[in-house]
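Bug report (template v2)

What were you trying to do?
Predict the complex of my protein with magnesium ion.

What happened?
Run completed; filing so the output is reviewed.

Input:
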Amino acid sequence: MKLQALNGFKDILPGDVELWQFVETIARSVFARFDFSEIRLPILEPTELFARSIGETTDIVEKEMYTFVDKKITMRPEATASLIRAYIEHGLYVQKPVQRLFTIGPMFRHERPQKGRLRQFHQMDAEVLGSQNPRIDAELMAMGAMLLQELGVSVSLELNSLGCPECRPAYRLQLQTFLTERFDTLCDDCKRRSSTNPLRVLDCKNPRCRAQVQAAPSILEHLCSACGQHFEEVQAGLGQLGVQYSLNKFMVRGLDYYTRTTFEFITTDLGAQAAVGAGGRYDGLIEQLGGPKGVPGIGFAMGMERLVLLLQQSAGGDALGRLCPDLFIAALGQAASDFCFGLAHELRSAGLRVAMDLEGRSLKSQMKQADKTGASWVLIIGEDEMKNSQGLLRNMKNQEQQQVELKAGTLKSLLQTRYIDGTEFSVKKILS
Ligand code: ATP
Ligand code: MG
């Protein structure tokens, strides 16, 4: 039997992994600027955690969870529930009234695999616990927008409010009546949803359902005054921070815990998998999971597969370039090989990313390799170069070549300048 990865589970190979690292590096940098701390959470949790938070009648809990039935444990389909479980378990609300936390890692959902949709996928999750301030909503969306902008992916932000336990029930009833009148035209899923979870019908992807709900009553016209005012202030905050958005009264999100602000970052560049990130407020969830009364929360999750796909489609090459070797050493002949084996090590200790061929291949083949790695510079050392302690340094961008000394002093200056120069390494500058 040929052993293969499971359907919907993917290896991330070198060449792609650099893009993943790039996404993560930018995210960590942006999260840090907004004063978020990292939290790392387990992959397995009690099944009940997800049933009670995400909701028994959601697609995720009904059909998509990987559960060990005998042990009543589930591989997390998302991170918010786990994060709140940890927040309560460790009393993080005692340490700080407002916690800003992020986590990055794999999630598991048994969905139909396709481009941008896997069974093991990865999310970057940011959550603010302990504040109801609408400025937090605006700030969080601004942070998401900044992250996407720094990644160079273009998206639009869609915004809605789902109200609260005060105003939503009346709206839900009105929507239910509306759906009952059109029951026969709905898809089978929505027929079921119209009684169990009518709001979900609003974002059904089936074109017939979509056409029907165009005329549905809007939640935004049914918000209570507190929710209405909160929503106004969220929008004012977005305005002040210069974040572009549009209202989407049909956006509901597939998890039951959301209240008030909900949002999605949408791209038009990935076909059907349009959402690269999504989130919202969940003011009742912490209490519902056994935490302190009345502690609100809000968060979002970005889907990393989709971000990487977008990078591959656009600025991927640039991003990759940042992670290429600084230097490729092409050694020819035994003496040069012996010398360069040590030289590579010294340069690596000095902080350079160095690649080298240890198999004694021809110059042509080594230059080909160097090209493939995307190294900025190649140092060529053969028998002649060894004799006069000189190497040939080639700039791979413009193909210019120059002789450089292979003495300890040169190495030392390489080393020093590396530190003065910070991350922007330029061999040419150092040696001239
Ligand atoms: P979708 O509408 O695409 O199914 P969702 O509403 O189920 O998304 P969330 O649970 O809110 O998504 O997760 C946030 C983000 O995680 C999504 O916007 C998407 O980028 C990503 N995501 C969700 N499910 C998957 C999956 N199966 N494979 C890859 N990425 C996913
Ligand atoms: Mg989904």
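What did the reviewer find?
Residues 78, 109, 111, 116-118, 121, 123, 254, 273, 275-278, 301, 303, 305-306 surround adenosine-5'-triphosphate (ligand 1) (CB under 6 Å). Residues 415-432 have pLDDT under 50 and may be disordered.
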